[in-house]
Amino acid sequence: MKTINIHQAKTHLSKLVEEASHGEPFIIAKAGRPVVKVIALEAPAASEVRRLGFMAGQISVPDDFDQMGRREIERLFAGRK
């Protein structure tokens, strides 16, 4: 794995990112000391992406959902025990 100093990384960032995305990770060093390792991310396949509504029809919300626990919440905020 190659090590690049921070100045070279800034100068050639596009090329380095392209290489990393193709499986060639690299290390960025500052004053000769390794600081970060750049590797490609593995994005999920389109079929694996979770969407909102994936449980549609499997759960139900009670009509009084917005009132559930109202008395307890009022008691707590009013400072009563």
The Cα radius of gyration reads 26 Å
Query: Widest sheet: strand order?
Result: 1-2-3
Mean pLDDT: 88
Extended strand count: 3
* Range of strand content: 15-25%
The structural class is alpha+beta
CATH homologous superfamily annotation of the domain at 2-38 = YefM-like domain
Helix proportion of residues, in percent? 25-40%
Describe the protein's topology.
Blueprint: E1 2-5, H1 6-11, H2 13-21, E2 26-30, E3 33-38, H3 70-78
Parallel strand pairs: 1-2
Antiparallel strand pairs: 2-3
Structural account:
This protein is of the alpha+beta class. The protein has a domain at 2-38: YefM-like fold, CATH 3.40.1620.10. It has helices spanning 6-11, 13-21, 70-78, and strands spanning 2-5, 26-30, 33-38. A three-stranded mixed beta sheet has the order 1-2-3. A hairpin with a 2-residue loop joins strand 2 (26-30) and strand 3 (33-38). The longest helix has 9 residues, at 13-21. It is elongated, with a radius of gyration of 26 Å. The model has no long low-confidence stretch (mean pLDDT 88).
